Model the fold of this input.
Amino acid sequence: MAQSMQIKGRVIIYTVHGCPSCVAAKNRLARLGVPYVEVNLDDYESQERQTLVNRTGKRSMPQIFFNGIFVGGYDDLATLKNDELQALVDEVIHYDAPPTAPVVPCIGAITMGSSLTEHRDRDQYAPVVEDLARSGLIQTHRRGIMLYRKTFVAEEFVQWLSLNEKYSYDHQEARAVGEELLRRKFIRRLTPEGDHHQFRADAMLYRLLDDEEWEALNAGPVSLNITREAVELSKALQVLMKKIYAQYISSGGKTVDYLGIARDPNFKIVESVAYELQRARLETLSKEETTAFFINIYNCIVIHWNVRMGSPGGLLSRGKFFFKARYILGGELYSLGDIENGILRANSKCWYWPFRPFSKEDPRLVCAVLDTDPRIHFALVCGARSCPAICCYTSEDIDTQLDMATDAYLEGHDGCQVDVENKVVTLSRIFKWYKEDFGASKSQVLQWIYNHMGHGEKRQLLGDLLEEGTCQVTYMKYDWASNGRM
Done:
């Protein structure tokens, strides 16, 4: 590494957590011996992001300034000619940053603090849950040809609770307790008919969430403590996860040291927060909250799986991975495929599975968005080398953040390549696998890409080809190899 030089001016690099290009850009500046100030936009309010977008016209990260001179992203820095780079270095060595140069904003960092690990009081209905588990009501019940193990009948529960001297509930109050247990995700309804979020004090069967024999990364005895809101849990979990992720990206920005993450004490905190998600209430989330929540959770499940279970091997293992990597969320089981296609793609079929993820009676369907936003494909990261960069998403800024993720992927080599001479546009296979999300024809898909691409040379070239109307579309090979460090 080159010895750090003395400069009069200022080099600022704007970054976000977990961005491989950001890591690569910082490493390049360090090798050159150029001191820099990092402004990580995940640590600031959303207005700082918008200020940068207004100034540069770009949403992707990183973005680099030498005094008041805007260099651009990592690719722009890496392709500078020697004399161009030397001119920039001379600028910051000999000259103070002018008043028009960007300045380091006052920090307003997201505070993780003790809220992740603080003690939480027991839920007021925890004693009822414990007594129900010991009551003898939980047995195997038959409904038609189906046997339901470890279940109880709702009307028997109401009768048992109303006769229990410990609580002194009348019949109506006992029924209200059943409704609260369902709302708080201590129990779940099993039979498919009707509203799964309504407690029916009849012959309906219910099961304690603790008695579900699910295989999930966050499985374990259900917490009897007061649970936090889904939005709060998602934010805490993913911000912490992204900080860990950012620490273990390789210098080239392409591989991740999952073994290092496994040894990091902070990952234990991640697992404890994920554990709380078992009983988080999801049905009350807004569209923006739903989108941000499930993108964050999808990316966290991938990292969690890679750390604890190892990276998927061949294509067969990769295919199974989308079904087997799962979390318990809000009293239901969600795989990666359920989240991507069931929730974020409005319960749509996908290229690797011919059926819709959720039936009409599936309780998870209430959480699904009504319309597919194609930009989610550039936010979901399954741990393959051709995936987009991983980022943290918030409901307040989800629209801007999805624009940034889309812009960044399309600007990169893995998303879109434009060959003007041969009139060929080469796209990521994402646009082939999910073509119906982007348009009914190849021309509509290309127009969608043009509309969502940052203003730059590539967009101009694509626009020229679209005007001619004669370009050919091909697709890149998708690199399914793990981004884990070998």
The first strand starts at residue 11 and ends at 15. The domain at 126-211 is CATH 1.10.10.10 (Arc Repressor Mutant, subunit A).
